Amino acid sequence: MARACCQRGLQHGLPAVEARRLALQQVQDRARTQADRNRLGQFATPARLAGELLHYAHRLLPTGSVRFLDPAIGTGSFYSALLREWPMAEISAATGFEVDAHYGDPCKALWHGTPLQLRLEDFTAARPPPGETGRYNLVICNPPYVRHHHLQRTVKARLQLRSMLTTGVRLSGLAGLYAHFITLAHAWMSAGALAGWLIPSEFMDVNYGRELKRYLLREVTLLRIHRFDPTELQFGDALVSSAIVWLRNQRPVRGHQVQFSSGGSLSRPKACGLVPASRLETAPKWRGFPAALSGGPRSDAATLGDYFRVQRGVATGANGFFIMTGEQAAERRIPAQCLRPILPGPRHLELDEVQADAAGLPQLARSCGFSTVGCPRRRSAIGTRISGATSIAAGQRSPRDTCVAGASHGLRRKCARRRFFCARISRAAAATAASSVSFSIARRPSPPTAT
Predict the structure, then answer these.
(1) Phi-psi group of 317: left, alpha or beta (phi > 0 → left; psi -120 to 50 → alpha; rest → beta)
(2) Residue-range domain boundaries for the chain
(3) For the chain, what is the radius of gyration of the CA atoms?
(4) Which long-range contacts (CB under 8 A, 24 or more apart) does 14-23 make?
(5) Per-residue pLDDT in tens (0 to 9) along the chain, 451 residues
(6) Pair 318, 411: CB distance under 8 Å
(7) Of 140, 198, 150, 197, nearest to 177 (Cα)?
(8) How far is CA 1 from CA 6, 11, 65, in A?
(9) Are 207 and 172 in contact (CB under 8 A)?
(10) CATH assignment, 2-294
């Protein structure tokens, strides 16, 4: 009886607790640099968005007791929304994981006296419940957006192995940490459990998202994907477009259709439609749905590929060394045939159309940069072995000299793997949140952008 009174009192006082949580979130965020939070993928879920997710989950979850799990709880934005949506008496269990004590300790103190069991440990290394009774029927999470190059090789190998043992899916080495959260949470969900994941929308189109999409289509029932408008970022401190993925822990039935929505909010999207799962199996990219429901282009219709060469930017791995201004190129005595003009990132372009001058260089208010990666293979200067590059004019730096200079800038391993300094990069540019796209006329290619 006393416990019930305490719980009723807590729910009546939730607005005050939520106000304290928001203030706590700001204090803890300010104590960390933006660079540290980017590296750790720590981007707090806005309270409005957390409330919208839990309200939608309440519509999808069957009536009965709720066993709630948040594998990356932070200060508890989703847990707070859970308490606003469900009566305390209907919450039979609530568990949150937080690997960072900077957020975990204040969260534990804030929600002391509530049903929340906070575990200050790494969810990806935790042992899942051995039986069905210990699992959860509601998983809501905004997993850390840690990009693959911030994961140590040993950690990445461990995550790949555990994901494969849990779901049979071997995620790409380029997949971010959030993908492993989704697959590893599979072992924590009870049969028929509902899960909502707030993640970057990049997985819908990139090659390293294929295995995650295979999991969503074959191992569980994918219910809905809502993609937010890329111009309406959900996180003010993260330049990444977001999506909400809803799934149920059961195999899909034949003829299943997935709801795709985009723009606006989860409850009031600007576009919405059903897509057969069989079509998603063969679609290499999902970001076009639901607009792509009308079908592909007519066979007689012109496409961008008829007029332009469309490509992602150049992935150098060391932009600070390989990309330079014209003045820097002259100072380093880089031969003109070893340089390729590039456009700045889209956020720095002030024009929708960039014209080229007589020399083929972009006409910009600010000078364009130059890249020594991806320049044309000219046998006289680039295609020959370094030792035989005799066509470099007197006074100009040879590719060998530039490669040696690069080694002094910490690029020794990169240079050791390349026989030629300016060999064209054959691999596709890794997809990033700030990736840029450039269009160039087929007959006279204009420079790509740097990513």
Answers:
(1) left
(2) 2-294, 308-441
(3) 26
(4) 14/80, 14/83, 14/84, 17/80, 17/110, 18/47, 18/80, 18/84, 20/110, 21/75, 21/76, 21/77, 21/80, 21/110, 22/47
(5) 444 444 555 665 889 999 999 999 999 999 988 777 777 778 889 999 999 999 999 999 988 899 999 999 999 999 999 999 999 999 999 999 999 999 999 999 999 989 999 999 999 999 999 999 999 999 999 999 988 888 999 999 999 999 999 999 999 999 999 999 999 999 999 999 999 999 999 999 999 999 999 999 999 999 999 999 877 655 454 446 899 999 999 999 999 999 999 999 999 999 999 999 999 999 999 988 887 665 544 445 677 777 877 776 666 767 777 888 888 888 888 888 788 787 777 667 777 788 888 877 888 766 666 666 555 443 333 332 333 333 445 556 665 566 656 666 566 555 444 444 334 333 333 333 333 333 333 333 444 554 4
(6) yes
(7) 150
(8) 9, 16, 19
(9) yes
(10) 3.40.50.150
Which two structure tokens, joined as six digits, stand for 277?
A: 């799962």
